[in-house]
UniProtKB/TrEMBL annotation, chains A, B, C, D:
Pfam families: DAHP_snth_FXD, DAHP_synth_1. GO terms for biological process: aromatic amino acid family biosynthetic process. This is 3-deoxy-7-phosphoheptulonate synthase. GO terms for molecular function: aldehyde-lyase activity; transferase activity. It comes from the Bacteria. It comes from Syntrophotalea acetylenica. Residues 93-324 form the DAHP synthetase I/KDSA domain.
Length: 339, 339, 339, 339
């Protein structure tokens, strides 16, 4: 931490702050500047918010952190990218791109199975589908719950595709884990810390979505919650952040891909469907995501988008998805990835 | 809903969309415009996302909602402001301003009791203090949990102040409700729908904080989750939204007060501490909040901010809080409110 | 500046960066941290972007500024608030609150005069009105230009109110200055540096509006452009920033008032009309602004808002404005201000 | 426009609003809804803000526009993409990708020439370089002005590359146009309407940058200012928008590419340098931009970034740029574009 003193703080104040820094277990190193003094607090600053509270002293102008606050997620701990299995034969983080596709929510057997077969035929490696749906309105369709999980399991039987599905309540973690291969944390739950802790104790990989207003640093701190409980299989998913722009549902932050790749060893996938909110924008964002260096995609596909009970406008048709996959192969090759 | 057709959509497409609108149980009313046609879908559009999915038809440009999606929270259902008791003798929503104050987190008996006595002496009517702390970092102090709840209950014994404290896990709702008078939902949990549903089944009032990236409409939808389960005692709390500005921790959206007052009957309070992040900015935001027409304040006070294990920079000292309360009385009077 | 070295940067890299810092005219002061080293560059860092460019060295992780980049606008240069005359007998920055009111744009003699008389009767001290209108659409009404300036001058004759009006083109500065008492820079021109420089050479006070995406620090840098050319009479105007919230036209950042008051000696006024975009929200934001400690208000008033050629929805009627002024007196008194 | 009446607005109010709509020259078409009535105002709503002012009537809840407000920029006017020459032999909007590269600011003959030769050798088709620099601080380097323009012209002589450079003052348009091939409008001037009008009267193509807080619709309205004055050669440039994220200088909005491609026929290029602010993030954003379907790139290259007087941290070295161009060819081929 760098502690910036106020311009008119005198020698006594400086001595007092130095003493407090030392009392908190840090070395205090003073730089006398032209306009003001600063104190470098040397020591591991992570996990000690108290140093930040020195900002409430009248003689202190600001306390500026220098170290990144995450550890296990960082490249400094693990310089090489993490590559791991999500299900037998399906890995993420390596040369092969991971495409996960399926409907926003499970609505029925025929809808799911028809969509699952179509996405598999087009080259998807994982089936997505929501059984527990966090909806803005209490009057909206909330998902088929366990019934939906059973349909997902049946679709896995039928297609061989492992399934990723969201868990929204700590209470349901065990239930969902009984059916799902990959446990998804939605954008609204990115800082649902009790949920993250429980997922950190599971033996299943976790797909963690960035929240609408989550900085990349906070996003990595949320991953750190899972990692610090012992579960090292975390896949990060950028799905658009909230900005002033209304032409898209959210603003897809593709520069998060190289930023994350610099800072963490965890794999990064992109959800262009929730990011843009419009099916017509999804294909170009799939190509761009792969060109940006992501490790995979999460795409909404519905056999009849115009009747979808949720997020129809952003869902590709099976034919649309197949066309995207065809063209995506060219970009994957350009990026030295296999699809 | 207003369904806007594309410019070159022909008669057949129009007829097809009209049919679909009717099949979904709405009346379809067409306006032929100069540049394009629009269809008004007449019926209760709330709770039916399927209408929105018509946007995925190639002939439809956009589907624009007209009705507000919330019901029970709206002024249309209940034109008069809600006034209710939070604890015996402590009401919100009426002429009396409600000031809730105390430390960000409960750290120990002396800290809590000393602070509680001070805020009571200065005129606070409710004691705040966190026992379960949702922290960005897994390595940061996470709260004293049940031990903290016990200290809060002891402070209530000692001072007579009812207590408000946060619940972050659906699992803990019953536990927290055994100790607390008012159950707080933090900004990160504003769309933790399983938690909201459970709180809707409690017989205790709920203090619901707006999220960092929650629109006012979404905020009211979250309140609607609680109301629709039967609990009518919801207090809304604006605590700053996330913007590009970094001079403050968040940007306090005080215009949310008159907007909410137009749209809902629920009481509205302001948290200037989390909004600004700096104790020196808190007093003027307290005055402004009351002038804007809010029903109360939630203010962080700590007996020794510079040693606080959480949010020290934004905490007032007891003396600072007393000075704010003194001056606040003048603004309360100007706003025809009692303090 | 604090130069943060990368974790694995060796001794040679450190020596190289130290040398470069010294070559740029700074003293280099190293702190050896546990995880990485940092170099404090001691000297006046303002005006030297080159130091920042050291960030492009492979061994440097980040370059973090410590000093605020503005000088003349800062409290460190001038600890007391600036109080100055805008026109004979009309001051800003002192005990008296300054209320400026009038239509968004000058539309005709009757409209302007009727409105001017009404706002004067209600207590406004300055008449506002746009003759050059920066409009998002090239097809929208662009203002009456010099004809409008003449009408403003006539309204000043008739009422005695000095006038504030916007200048959007450096070419027009002299023209507008011939008519206006106060020269307004609109939000879209907050970083129109050639315009700011010219206004810095004028002998008339400048009302500088914050841009929709301007940080407080950038806002003060724009004021610094004017001050550094010699014109010390700059009034800062917060008028809402752009955020994700759509219930209001912009989000009024009232916490900017105390932040600015801490950092600068310049007077601060609030424009609640553009901030909220809805007349019904304007009154409470006027009261809140005064309670927050601002030095004045800029309010849109139109004698017939529903026929306004610009910004009708956010304009108060004369009667509405008079009612606001009446109630505002109570808040002014509570804030120890005269109205 | 759709005019939404308030819930309790009676028949008389409805009749009154219908009359006003007709008096403004529109047809009024009423839909009686279950909860409220709406009026469709049929006619060309562009350029008539008065209709919006009906929102100030007490019986009106909202006025919702249906038509896009731009004309000449729209796909509806010109369904095919615009393809045009920027300089002899250099076109934009067609199959060939346009790469513009060079330093942020012209600093001297050697710097410019060395960089120009390097970017040409790597495949750039246009040389960029700022002579008039809009800088946040009045104390920062403001550009070499006409001297810089002369150096740019000399670099064109030496390399054959046409030059793009920024104009920040309407007064300088003729001066800059004498030297430059393409006139650039910077992000801060995207709503400098007098400047846009003048550029609309020039016979040189214009590179228009999106502002930090400019919606896509407003961006197209700014283009419309230029088009409506007669200059049809406008190139749109997305360069990042301002959001809460601080890991990057701005947030590159790559989904703006497909959105713009749907709405306008104008070519779209991407500036990954200003968007990200860090050279290490630029390569992947170049690849992603091309995959997203853009027509070209604007990239900062400096022969010695660590000594740059402006934006060093985001500048590629010549070697770095050459490596990007090499790999970019693969993505261009995947996107069916030539480079």
């Amino acid at each position: 931490m760098i502690i910036v003193m106020k311009k008119d703080a005198g020698k006594e104040a400086l001595a007092e702050v130095k003493k407090r820094v030392r009392d908190l277990g840090y070395k205090a190193h003073v730089i006398h500047g032209e306009a003001r003094d600063v104190i470098g607090a040397v020591g591991d600053e992570r996990g000690k918010a108290v140093l930040q509270s020195l900002e409430s002293l009248p003689c202190v102008e600001a306390v500026v952190p220098i170290l990144k606050p995450y550890k296990l997620a960082s490249r400094e701990i693990r310089p090489e990218p993490s590559v791991f299995e999500l299900a037998p034969g399906v890995t993420v983080g390596g040369r092969e791109l991971l495409v996960m596709a399926g409907p926003c929510s499970v609505e029925g057997e025929e809808q799911l199975l028809e969509t699952a077969r179509a996405v598999k035929a087009a080259g998807a490696r994982v089936l997505r589908g929501g059984a527990f749906k966090p909806r803005t309105s209490p009057y909206a369709f909330q998902g088929m719950e366990e019934e939906g999980l059973k349909l997902l399991a049946a679709a896995r039987e039928a297609t061989g595709l492992p399934i990723v599905t969201e868990v929204v309540n700590p209470r349901d973690v065990d239930l969902v884990a009984r059916y799902a291969d990959i446990l998804q944390v939605g954008a609204r739950n990115v800082q649902n810390f009790p949920l993250l802790r429980l997922l950190g104790q599971q033996d299943k990989p976790v797909l963690l979505k960035r929240g609408m207003a989550t900085t990349i640093q906070e996003f990595l701190m949320s991953a750190e919650y899972i990692l610090s409980e012992g579960n090292q299989r975390v896949v990060l998913c950028e799905r658009g952040i909230r900005t002033f722009e209304t032409a898209t549902r959210n603003t897809l932050d593709l520069s998060a891909v190289p930023v994350l790749k610099e800072q963490t060893h965890l794999p990064v996938v992109i959800d262009p469907s929730h990011a843009t909110g419009h099916a017509s924008l999804v294909p170009s964002m799939c190509y761009a995501a792969v060109a940006a260096g992501c490790d995979g995609l999460l795409v909404e596909v519905h056999n009849h988008p115009e009747t979808a009970s949720c997020d129809g406008p952003q869902s590709l048709t099976p034919a649309g998805f197949a066309a995207v996959m065809d063209k995506l192969r060219r970009f994957a090759a350009a990026a030295d990835r296999d699809l």
